[in-house]
Design brief:
- The protein is mainly beta.
- It has one domain: outer membrane lipoprotein receptor (LolB), chain A.
- The chain is built from two helices and 13 strands, in the order βββββββαββββββα.
- The longest helix has 12 residues.
- It is globular and about 45 Å long.
Amino acid sequence: MLNLISCDSSIFHPKLSEGEIEYDVTYPAMEAENVMVEFMPESMTYKFKNNKFITDLSAGMGMFKANFIGDCETHKMTHLVKMVNKKYNTVYDENSIAILNKAYDDFTLIETNSTKTIAGYECKKIWVIFTAVSMPNFELYYTSDISIKDPNWSLPFTGVEGVLMEYEMKRNGIIMKLTATSVKKTDVEDDVFSVPEEYEDVTIEFMEEELDKLFETFNY
């Protein structure tokens, strides 16, 4: 269950509809001395055009790579994963996306009047407050100055209408904090949203099992 409490109104700005966002990735729940941290992705690239996006995370000198290709109009998302010599691809829709966001159940989004400049954009602050004590609360920042229709439909934070510039996500037992470091207005080729032929179609359940097995080591 999700509740959205708003204390602010949106402000109009000229909006960017095609480009690239670079995010710094950190792991707030992992101890700094955990040797596994150095094998985790340190950055994420987010390219967008025509209400489509693709994210790119890689680690281990390219031995692990994950992409999400999302269509914000059809609410379809393709998940591509490369694990050494294995390459898998699965597709989520509006109903099955809940499997990907299974770590998020009962929380409330509380908008505030606070703002912060991130990567040159004025961003509004939202508190993410969880009912379960096992999930730490955190601050989320978003901008209304990037034009993507329904940008968060595939995330737990569907009630947020702007593009996320600082937030946390828990996937496969790992909490990642993503903070935008740059936003570039650049041409994005249409073919970046296509699935390479060498990726094998698998079920959502198979993909989740493979990723859980891979990341369970990082939780120790």
